[in-house]
Amino acid sequence: MSELNLVEAVNRALAYELEHDPSVVLLGEDIGANGGVFRATLGLQERFGTERIVDTPLAETALAGTAIGMASMGLRPVVEIQFSGFIYPAIDHILNHAARLRHRTRARLTCPLVIRSPCGAGIHAPEHHSESPEALFAHMPGLRVVMPSSPERAYGLLLAAIRDPDPVVFLEPTRLYRLYKQPVEDDGTAAPLDTCFTLREGTDVTLVSWGAMIHEVQMSADVLAAEGVEAEIIDVATLKPLDMETIVASVAKTGRCVIVHEAPRTCGLGAEIAANLAERGLYSLLAPIERVTGYDVVVPLFRLEAQYMPSVARIVSAVRKTLEAST
Hints:
Blueprint: E1 2-4, H1 6-20, E2 24-28, H2 44-48, E3 53-55, H3 60-72, E4 76-80, H4 91-98, H5 101-104, E5 114-119, H6 134-138, E6 144-146, H7 151-163, E7 168-173, E8 182-184, E9 197-200, E10 205-209, H8 213-226, E11 231-235, E12 238-240, H9 244-254, E13 257-264, H10 269-280, E14 290-294, H11 305-308, H12 312-325
Parallel strand pairs: 2-3, 2-4, 4-5, 5-7, 6-7, 10-11, 10-13, 13-14
Antiparallel strand pairs: 1-8, 6-12, 9-11
Helix pairs in contact: 1-7, 3-4, 8-12, 9-10
């Protein structure tokens, strides 16, 4: 067992699958000799060769289309898009071909494709480098959408995504790449897809989040615990399909829910979770659901970035509001 940060855990998962499955191929811009813009593929081309770690032109549309063709013919391509803000030219292929191939061919063909991309704010990057487009992909039928919140989770979920017979958009929170390390067992054990993870048990409020925001949510829970408030933390992890059973069961226990994400508020995934709770868990709620989110603007550059992102103070304030509403 090694102490790994998130980008190292991604590298280990890719190396494990490359070693154990000859159909796995990596494609992307500068992923070979340079190891990718964040060095997630560092050393893999030297180890596995240029036929399996393929540097591509700066052309996301062509990259996605090529990978879909490879996947339909029996390979398992893993594509790296340098930043989530660069993924939009590939959406034509992702939505119209990758996500529909099983349906279009009545399961005669499948598309075991993983598209990896860094996402999210918090690293003081320029425009197009700080986006959180998970709700966009979650709206597309035929796709799985996954976002890990820790090195251990990144390792296990990426293994599961590569082994999945259908396309997966795997969004990696840039801010977590080197934020901290934790023990990760490099034994090839995949984490389950399509399920939430309960990171902390509590009785007073359910905090629902995913990706980098789990870090702020955990700090908020510590602040609340010092005030005598026990928060339960749900890491959604697989954003599509959404495991509402775990969330509904948690809210049935706590009676309150605060949903946290850094993507813009309008039509964010938090709205979908809140709608599901209104349909399936309304009578469990002791207070209105609160959402703590990014704002409906492009992520501002540098000085205002911290004001855009949900903070511990905003999360704790939302929890206090739910507690006051139910007293």
